[in-house]
Amino acid sequence: MTKRTSKLTLWVGVAAFALALAGLAYVVPLTREPSPRPPVERAAEEMNSRRFSKASRTLTVVIQREPANTEALLRRGDCYLKLRRYDEAQADFELALDRKPGVPAARLGLARVLLGEGKYEQALAAAREIATASPHFIEPYAVIGKAHYRIFQRHARDCVKIFEDDPHHRPLAVAAASEVRLGRFQSAEAYWDGLCAGGPAVADQPRLRRHLDLAKKQFNLAVTNLAIACGETTERPGTAGPDTWLYLAAMLLGKGDYEQAERAVDRAAELPGADLIQAAVIKAEVLSERARGLAVDASAHDQPDKIERARNLNRKAVRLLERVVEKHPGAVRIRNRLAVHYGRAGWLEHAPRRAKAARPGPGAPSRRSDRA
């Protein structure tokens, strides 16, 4: 009995060991590290985090292994655009066109290079040609809108210079110049009328009128095309990225359409890769302008409840910028805007000193765009 028991015990042990090995065969695969993501997907995530330098390096490795990978070329071209490395972006888009002739995204990339280089009329013509050739491709309208906006800025600068050259240096001329910069043409022209009524107006009136008309036309064309790119005016869904939504929000703010401007900036902030600092600045301006409108209306009609609503909107604007400053203490421009909003909210005792040439504090973001 002892020998039989020993043999039985031995076989039971062998069987248990075999079962344990079989179990490991199933368990081990379940506990393995997940396979690494494809490099193109990893680069897309880096771009969404605005780490464009790192994304471009990731994509370079892909292109070295797969020279015919058009998607990687297009994405790296986008990275170079964000980094303002226009020659390299152009080379990537041209190579993508060579690999896959006629691809609209590559042709649009070349139009965006022209836009970045300041060749606005050429960018406008190239984007219009793409939109005509590919009616279902909605992305060119973003380039068209941005090109019109840049041309508007050029005419606005000419107007501002004429206003600022007013020989009498009157405050109305300074106010008119400020309104033109923001695209508020109605109030700018009202200031101009005030200048004309108060005595000798700015020197070159016909030239000023021409630039004002051109600036107004370009501004309206920019808003129209950016709205198309964002899917705001057609039944086609928009494919605009966060930058295009921020452009639209800033221009709607200038037009005084605060509700739509706030909606546009909120939409931009929801999208991957958004510049959240710029979004916060525009949102704060929208809230502040809404508050100013309420305060003016309340003063004219003696409505204390509107005054309180205006204060609350200003406080929201202040808190929004305070959160940005907490995360980016070296952002001098944001600190300056925060000081302005403190004043608007009636919190002058809290207004920080306007930053001069202060060095960025600890934890401040780099000026490089992929760390913004």
What would you note in describing this structure?
This protein is globular. The protein is mainly alpha-helical and 372 residues long. The longest helix is centred in the first third of the chain and has 29 residues, at 2-30. It is 73% helix and 0% strand.
Question: What's the topology here?
Answer:
Elements: H1 2-30, H2 39-48, H3 52-65, H4 70-82, H5 86-99, H6 104-116, H7 120-133, H8 140-164, H9 171-182, H10 185-197, H11 205-229, H12 242-255, H13 258-270, H14 276-301, H15 304-327, H16 332-344
Helix pairs in contact: 2-3, 2-4, 3-4, 4-5, 4-6, 5-6, 6-7, 6-8, 7-8, 8-9, 8-11, 9-10, 11-12, 12-13, 12-14, 13-14, 14-15, 14-16, 15-16
Which features characterize this protein?
mainly alpha; 372 residues
Describe the structure concisely for a colleague:
The protein is mainly alpha-helical and 372 residues long. It contains 16 helices and no strands.
Secondary structure: helix percent: over 70%
Largest sheet at a glance? none
> How many beta-strand segments?
0
Taking all residues together, what is the mean pLDDT?
78
As a whole number of angstroms, the C-alpha radius of gyration is: 29 Å
Shape: globular
Structural class by helix and strand composition: mainly alpha
- Listing every helix as H and every strand as E from the N terminus to the C terminus, the arrangement reads HHHHHHHHHHHHHHHH
Amount of beta strand: under 5%
Q: Outline the low-pLDDT stretches.
A: 24-33, 347-372
Task: Give me the number of helical elements.
Answer: 16
Straight-line N-to-C gap = 81 Å
